[in-house]
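Can anyone check this?
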Amino acid sequence: MGIVKFVVPKGSIEEATFQIIERAWQTKVSGRGRIYRVKIGDPEIEVKILRPQEIPTYVQEGFHDVGITGKDWIKETNADVKVLLDLEYGRVKQVIAIPEFFGFNNLDELISDFAEKKKTLRFSTEYLKSASMYIKSKDSYKKYFGDLEPTIVTPWSRTGDNKLVEIFLSFGATEAKPPEDVDAVFDITETGTTLVQNNLKIIDQVMESTAVLIANKEALKDPVKKEKITDMIVLLKGVVEARKKLHIFVNVEEKNLEQLLNILPSLKGPTVSNLSTKGWFGVNTIIDKEEFIRLVPTIRKIAQGLVILEPSQILSMDKITLDEKEVKID
């Protein structure tokens, strides 16, 4: 039986999640596509697949020790979990969007217009709590409705005391609801293309979300589990960092060696070795991808045989303290 129970998301970020796991553990995930329990080649880790919406709560309750989910779902569920690492994929924006023919530029204008006309303003979303909190935070809402709670409508219940602002639970295809069913959507988007295709325009951005690694706080108090979770952080962080870097190899004549070393960034220091040809050296180092284009013109003039590789992992092996400040959830 595994030491650590690890839950990963099904759905839109499922493929990207398995890609980072395969690179981190240098193995293929077995069982994908057939069952909800897969193996990652580590007998000390049990892996299960669930919807990302459920993962924060299930990790909080201790059903699983660690999990991968979106920042948006941690905020929506208000889960009491430890956010260990921003995995920097699954990047989406949580936004308010309305029909493009509406003449409003932001949510405050929308709320004010409907309130003054005493028209019921209706939203559709999968994020009921987040939508309610954000709408209530707007100055226009406070002006017209004070501390009244927006009405939240699901197939099972209707809560809240403000009948002029209603938030309806969406089971998907949220962008298809306006203008016949609702006036606005509280939704996530990667590029905004789907919203535009459905004749919607963004008027407010609420937050930006990425996939993160989270842990149950009680699991981190178990020395054995904590040690294994630390190993998981090291492996996953190695992939996150590697995606930002390039490994370059270049040959340089001795007279240009010092000039080359002066311009090359590195993790610790470039590795320099003698080539079989007298007076020539091989230099290899790790650089940030964003530095590459800036360096090429200079390298081209003073060196030869530039080879570029994308590292799959960069493990710093620095001591990780799980008591460090958590990743911020806006």
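Reply from J.R.: I decoded it. The chain has three domains: 4-91+210-242, 93-208, 245-309.
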